[in-house]
Design brief:
By secondary structure, the protein is mostly helical. The chain is built from 4 helices and no strands.
Length: about 90
């Protein structure tokens, strides 16, 4: 069992699965908003999901041995998305 988990992590496919689940979540939130007119504002969904996706890509990059430059780039993308999200939320108050 653990060997399979080790292989899943080492290949980065565990992160791929989580990114897929993140995409399903985003699509579900968008669909709910369109159908009901309620729910999380789309801009909040986008910035939060982008930040999370960038963090997951940084994790994947570290797991599979990508260049440190890619890891830094992914982390910088997460920071920019996070700051954009904070800015939007603070302006809304």
């Amino acid at each position: 069992m653990w060997a399979g988990l080790d292989a899943l992590l080492a290949s980065g496919h565990a992160v791929d699965l989580i990114l897929g689940l993140l995409l399903v979540e985003v699509l579900a939130l968008i669909a709910y908003r369109r159908v009901t007119g309620r729910g999380v504002p789309l801009a909040d969904v986008a910035t939060t999901a982008l930040s999370g996706a960038c963090l997951l890509l940084a994790l994947r990059a570290a797991l599979v041995g990508w260049s440190p430059a890619w890891i830094v780039l992914c982390l910088a993308g997460a920071l920019v998305a996070h700051l954009a999200d904070l800015r939007r939320r603070l302006r809304a108050e």
